[in-house]
Design brief:
This protein is an alpha/beta fold. It has one domain: 3-Layer(aba) Sandwich (Rossmann fold). The protein is built from seven helices and six strands. It has a six-stranded parallel β-sheet, sandwiched between helices. Helix 1 crosses helix 2 and helix 3 crosses helix 4.
């Protein structure tokens, strides 16, 4: 099975290292998403140009938005969607305003300021936080926030997608609630925050193996 792993903000592809042992029997790609254009569609088109064949696509947060965009621009490449700490709807006006404030924070305080702001939102237990996994180019981070802010609504795409679609959220998720995803297949991981794969890798790997069995 081809497996495509798409990472979260403000981390990079190294966040997926806890999943690699569980995927040892599969062909895995984990590209870096930053710097691929100004929109999520541009990111998806860039990724589509780098892969061949059908993939089980696993996206965490920002990576989930890119996964949904990929399913729109190149549906022949996407056989299933596992979306962790992500959501199919676009940013509300309140979330868009929050993105603007975060962009200004990066301009004032750089990547370290972003990490200080985001760290308590990403983990249920801050001792699990690993700042070394953070992507540190400020312009890349700002471009990612703009692409997230301006992404299209993928709700109907998620409803109509012909393959398996599963959402995963941590019990202490700060960015999306299970109620907001209630129409979809959703798994809640106890004692985890936004970055489920890092805080509860064994649980996420079990979900991942079960998901791949259905793709």
């Amino acid at each position: 099975m081809n497996v495509l792993l798409l990472h979260a903000l403000p981390l990079d592809e190294r966040m997926w290292e806890p999943q690699l042992p569980a995927l040892a029997q599969h062909d895995v790609a984990a590209p870096r998403l930053y710097g691929r254009g100004r929109t999520m569609t541009a990111w998806a088109e860039s990724i589509a140009g780098e892969i061949d064949g059908g993939h089980a696509v696993v996206g965490a947060s920002m990576g989930g938005y890119c996964a949904l965009a990929l399913a729109k621009v190149a549906p022949e490449l996407v056989r299933g969607l596992l979306l962790v700490g992500s959501r199919p709807d676009p940013d509300s006006p309140e979330r868009r305003a929050g993105r603007a404030e975060t962009i200004e924070l990066i301009r004032r305080e750089g990547p370290d300021g972003l990490w200080r702001f985001m760290e308590p939102k990403l983990y249920a237990h801050r001792e699990n936080a690993d700042p070394s996994l953070m992507y540190r180019d400020p312009e890349g981070l700002i471009g990612a926030l703009e692409a997230i802010r301006d992404r299209e609504d993928s709700t109907q795409l998620a409803r109509d997608f012909p393959g398996p679609v599963q959402f995963v959220v941590g019990e202490h998720e700060n960015f999306v609630t299970p109620g907001e995803l209630s129409e979809f297949d959703i798994r809640i991981v106890p004692d985890a925050g936004h970055l489920v794969n890092l805080e509860r890798p064994d649980e996420l790997n079990a979900i991942l193996r079960e998901f791949l069995s259905r793709v």
